[in-house]
TrEMBL record, chains A, B:
Residues 26-97 form the Adenosine/AMP deaminase N-terminal domain. Its EC number is 3.5.4.4. GO terms for molecular function: adenosine deaminase activity; metal ion binding. Residues 220-478 form the Adenosine deaminase domain. The keyword Metal-binding applies. NCBIfam families: adm_rel. One of its GO terms (biological process) is adenosine catabolic process. Its main location: secreted. The keyword Cell membrane does not apply. This is Adenosine deaminase. It comes from the Eukaryota. InterPro entries: A_deaminase_dom, A_deaminase_N, ADGF, Ado/ade_deaminase, Metal_Hydrolase. Residues 1-18 form the signal peptide.
Length: 504, 504
């Protein structure tokens, strides 16, 4: 605070010979300082060693930001993710962020998590049949030729592949079904519905593949493995919990699908005891009637009853603009709130003042614990206050919002203002496999280099990782944060040491 | 406010059988109402007739917004301005907005205001010489062949045109120098520097054309005419005040250029006494040294001394990212503040935390009366508070920001959050001629249909028009607002009448 006398003096001065230059400089510094105090990460105090690491990280960050500023024609994060995703791997800062303990992933979906190459590999499994119809494809595991309809003909995948004459070409073509990545995204996806159509089709096309119980279970195990390797210690997975099937003709309902998840989690933790765990958010499709939502909620309660430690809560998924808005389900969701925690998708839209946009109000009124995306929140000043007051975690997925056409230039992503306002932000990755991103590293990198202030430093990175643990539903949060701090110190020590040894 | 008893009751209820549905609905309504109260325009009360007009306007708006929402593949304002600017003319709402009294234009530059067709017409003037060098062009008025250097050869424009063999083709080619509009903007302008280069070149190429005193004066007279026809009653024009010349070899300095403006304004007001006036913001190029800024400020003071009623204040212009930041001129600008009001461009950038971005802090600390663009302001929570507290008008130019590549999809323009937060917003148009927009109607239309909430109505339109008068520097503000109200009533009456008569 300034004293009264110099302030008064500078006012008097100003009326006589203009503004006092020192006063202008002091006032600017004061305004800047107030903003710095407000930013996400401003409450973190760095140790001496962290300060050293910070200098390394900030050298890297400023070089990359300034190169983008000075040479916008080359690599920079203002372009579409597909245009820079491979270049990112050359960035030393990206490598640092890969190695960095990043805490938890709190917003990630079903079978959208692993790369198209992984999915192509799955198609090498025994007993897999495929049905090609023009540009469409479907899969089914079966001991004999499936009885389900196929407009052409079910082929044993192995036969289709090896009779194609060129396995490499066959697989490359197949791979295109498992990714939304294309060379020219603005041409391939001229509008939001076009890209959502391609994105949604991935899940439709692969339903016969992933619905096979052994594959479903393997996929989750391998997801945990991939996330652990990306230095993630815990995840909360959203799933529609599709019915599963096996070769014996058995089918498994949503509760049993949830149990498959739990079984694989237990197995994974036996194999990798340094991984902290996973919990489930049951998140079925939102384009349904109120009575279906009532059934969903009953299913959710059954899962919670059977897997109380594994079940985290409830959500609804699908393209929010084209889905049914939350307000249609208020009676059901109000009643369900006695037993269930909510983690609603809301505000994944650009359409200000529409019913989709209003989902943000309903989600808050329904007591949601976190908000998925919250992209439109920046347009809602009262909700911004409420999010802060109620401490509702915001699950931000920058790359997803870019790929799914909410924002072309991520410097305009509302995350920038959320970070500036010190909102409870968690960085997540949504469906990184479908756009060929790493489980979380690309999203962290893009948020840090592309969206946050040029001046936002290691404190932001640490805070974002800590937030992901803090806003999780894990019952062993303290233990997890304790372990995180240990891993963080090791990461910092390693970074400083490698820098000293000239290895960076 | 809710009573304590029902609130307590609903809390108790919630713990027993979930949330009370009525409580959820009430809470949402409460949150929504608080936001509605905060929006720009919420303080306007509509008369009965205005309510009728509002119903007409909102029918049109919702139809257009919902068509965009439902059929994103067709016309909608999420695309680049060049893609929809001609379609807009088919919109009945655009026609309404054209007819609507829009108040003042407070942010508009020199010779960027009239269409390329108008500029082509100017090239039919006598005594005009042209120098073609590859894709470059320059002009000079002269009685004889100019002595200035030309890498090829000065041609009398008339000779060049009629010896071309195809006047239409010649003019079409010429026209391309006077517009940034192209069929495929993302291809033509891959980055911000590319489009700024084309934009800046327009001013460079036409400097010999507009620097000719009679043309300079005619251009301003015709600007006032075009703006008046677009239902604008007052403008504040920013100008670099270039030296002018005539056929006799005389040159005129910045003060004399300012006097040319004033002379034409006086003539215009004699011809059109219903136009309220214009004032000048001297806004020379920012890519200069501190000593040049000192000279600028001296010039500004001279203009103020000679034209005290016409001179409004001082600013600096040019691509902000590549210009010198305000902080380099703090000593000069602090000292200049004794005599001069500031209207700084600031925050016309996407680069969060850079020196360009910091211009917002310097502008506020220097006591700027308004901020030009303020695009980056949404990332600065403390400055947002200060702008409101100090009542600093924000001159928002949505189409400019789209064309000059700050934002690809205007639904992500920060204006949306400024409107939601009730900030002192003024809609302006920057350089509408260069991108072939109307003086102000396109910007109003895009702000209203493309950026503001689907629910924002006639009160927003009226408030934006009133703001443009309120945040002007006009000394006859009350009289202007009084006259505005009269014109507004006529507009409302006409709209309601035409609707009754089935003319809409």
């Amino acid at each position: 605070m300034k004293g009264t006398v110099p302030l008064l003096f500078s006012f008097l001065f100003a009326t006589v010979i203009g503004l006092d230059e020192k006063h202008v400089i002091r006032e600017k510094a004061n305004l800047l300082a107030r903003e710095v105090d407000m930013m996400v990460g401003s409450d973190i105090t760095l140790t001496d060693n962290e300060e050293k690491a910070n200098a390394i990280v900030m050298d890297m960050k400023m070089k990359e930001v300034d190169d983008g500023f000075n040479y916008p024609q080359f690599f920079n994060l203002s372009k579409h993710f597909f245009k820079y995703k491979d270049d990112v791997k050359e960035s030393p800062l990206f490598q640092v962020i890969k190695n960095m303990p990043k805490g938890a992933v709190l917003h990630a979906h079903d079978t959208g998590l692993l790369s198209p190459d992984y999915v192509v590999n799955i198609t090498y499994s025994d007993d897999l049949y495929v049905c090609f119809v023009d540009e469409d494809i479907s899969f089914l595991f079966s001991e004999n030729e499936p009885e389900q309809s196929c407009e052409t003909q079910w082929l044993l995948m192995r036969d289709a592949r090896y009779s194609s004459g060129n396995v490499e070409k066959f697989d490359a073509h197949l791979r295109k079904h498992f990714t939304v990545v294309v060379d020219n995204p603005s041409e391939a996806y001229p509008d939001v519905n076009a890209v959502w159509n391609k994105f949604g089709n991935y899940f439709v096309k692969t339903s016969g593949l992933f619905g096979y119980k052994p594959i479903w279970e393997m996929y989750f195990y391998d997801t945990l493995k991939a996330f652990r390797e990306d230095n993630i210690m815990y995840i909360e997975i959203r799933s529609v919990l599709p019915p599963l099937y096996d070769l014996k003709g058995n089918t498994y309902d949503a509760v049993q699908t949830a149990k498959s998840y739990k079984k694989m989690l237990d197995r994974f933790i036996l194999d990798y005891p340094d991984f902290f765990g996973a919990r489930l958010i049951y998140a079925p499709i939102r384009l349904v009637s109120a009575s279906t939502v009532e059934e969903y909620l009953e299913t959710a309660k059954r899962i919670k009853a059977e897997l109380p430690d594994f079940f985290a809560g409830f959500d609804l998924v699908g393209q929010e603009d084209l889905g049914v808005p939350l307000k249609e389900f208020i009676p059901q969701l109000s009643a369900g709130a006695d037993e269930l925690d909510y983690f609603f998708h809301a505000g994944e839209t650009n359409w200000f003042g529409t019913t989709t946009d209003d989902n943000l109000f309903d989600a808050v009124a329904l007591g949601t614990k976190r908000i998925g995306h919250a992209f439109a929140l920046a347009k809602h000043p009262v909700l911004l206050q409420e999010v802060k007051r109620r401490n509702i975690g915001l699950e931000i997925n920058v790359i997803s919002n870019n790929v799914l056409k909410l924002v072309d230039d991520i410097r305009n992503h509302p995350l920038a203002s959320f970070l500036a306002q010190g909102l409870p932000v968690v960085i997540s990755s949504d469906d990184p496999g479908v756009w060929e991103a790493d489980p979380l590293s690309h999203d962290f990198y893009v948020a840090f280099v592309g969206v946050s202030s040029r001046n936002a430093d290691l404190r932001l990175l640490k805070k974002l990782a800590l937030n992901s643990l803090y806003y999780s539903t894990a019952p062993y949060k303290d233990k997890m944060i304790y372990e995180f701090e240990k891993r963080w110190s090791r990461f910092i020590d390693g970074l400083v040491r490698r820098d000293n040894e000239g290895e960076l």
